[in-house]
Specification:
- Helix content is 50%, strand content 16%.
- The protein is an alpha+beta fold and 131 residues long.
- It has 2 domains: 40 residues, no CATH class; 79 residues.
- The strands form 2 sheets. A 3-stranded antiparallel β-sheet has the order 3-2-5, with no helix packed on it. Strands 1-4 form a two-stranded antiparallel ribbon.
- A hairpin with a 2-residue loop joins strand 2 and strand 3.
- Helix 1 packs antiparallel against helix 2, helix 1 packs antiparallel against helix 4 and helix 3 runs antiparallel to helix 4.
- The longest helix is centred in the C-terminal third of the chain and has 22 residues.
Length: 131
């Protein structure tokens, strides 16, 4: 099933491993094959991954973008997941982690990223209360 995207002026998007920048006007793209696609707002850099949940997100993002490296990233994924489990997060965080892991096992890394965003929010609440 094709993926239809509307890009805002100057919006960047990752398609496979290529970063594509839109021009000055709105544009529509149709992706006809299965390839990793992420909007600029969904991309996090190593510098931005300054918490455990954000580092976990970056790890899943790299699994999504570089499927050939997925096996080597699993070790990092489980180390970070273990660190999150030890944090005093909302109890629903465990359900999110289980769901995210199931999505990764099923090969649906994009949906795993969406689940991980919820973990980032829960972690932010905890970190806000610690400071």
């Amino acid at each position: 099933m094709p993926l239809k995207l509307s890009l805002r002026p100057h919006e960047k998007i990752l398609i496979g491993t290529a970063v594509v920048a839109n021009g000055a006007s709105k544009a529509e793209l149709v992706i006809l094959n299965r390839v990793p696609v992420l909007r600029q707002k969904d991309i996090i850099t190593e510098e931005e991954a300054d918490t455990v949940a954000k580092a976990l997100y970056l790890t899943v993002l790299n699994m999504y973008i570089h499927p050939q490296q997925q096996r080597s990233l699993h070790k990092i994924y489980f180390l970070l997941l273990n660190q999150l489990i030890l944090m005093p997060l909302d109890p629903k965080a465990i359900d999110i982690m289980v769901d995210m892991s199931k999505k990764i096992i099923g090969g649906d890394h994009y949906q795993a990223l969406k689940a991980c965003r919820k973990l980032i929010e829960l972690e932010a609440e905890v970190l806000k209360n610690v400071k």
